Amino acid sequence: MQRYKFNGDYSLRQIFNHELIQYVNNMAIDLVVVIPISEYTMMTRGFNQTVGLFEGVTLSDLLKVKAKNKSHQSQFNRKGRMMRTQPFTVSKSLPLHNKRVLLVDDVYTTGNTLYHAADLLYDLGAKNVKSLSLAR
Q: What's the CA dihedral at 70, 12, 1, 91 to 10 degrees?
């Protein structure tokens, strides 16, 4: 993950891509929502590592990182991660009434990121929200 995510070895996404696509395609879901990265991270890294891992799956960019939120999860210990406030906002209006949503992310650490994202999706009317991450 260090080489892929932080050192920019984008070709490593192909190692798990096929299996992740198969897994998603076998799930009973209506929408796949990617955990977003900040604009700053996109500018400095040049890619969203989760989008790369799930390349080939139709992903929704329904969520975005709040503009004032410039800190990375990796900067915090477990306690700091659990104390963070809602880092996301909705990027566009999309009714999710009775929809089954899958949240995808690269790494599950404390679950706080997915909790905040799922909270917004339920507020938009999602019937249920599941998650899938490459690593824990």
A: 30
* pLDDT band, very low/low/confident/very high, at 72 (cuts 50, 70, 90): low
Strand locations in 1-136 (E): 31-34, 63-65, 88-90, 100-107, 128-135
Average pLDDT, the chain: 89
The first and second tokens of residue 97, run together, are: 């009434």
Name the residue type at position 27.
Answer: M
For the chain, how big is the Rg over CA atoms in Å? 14
Give the count of alpha carbons within 13 A of 66, CB side only.
Answer: 12
Residue 100 has phi, psi (to 5 degrees) of: -95, 120
The pLDDT tens digits for 3-34 are: 888 888 889 999 999 999 999 999 999 999 99
Q: What is the DSSP letter of 71?
A: -
Helices (runs of H) and strands (runs of E) counted in the chain = 5, 5
- Contact call for residues 108 and 118 (beta carbons, < 8 A): no
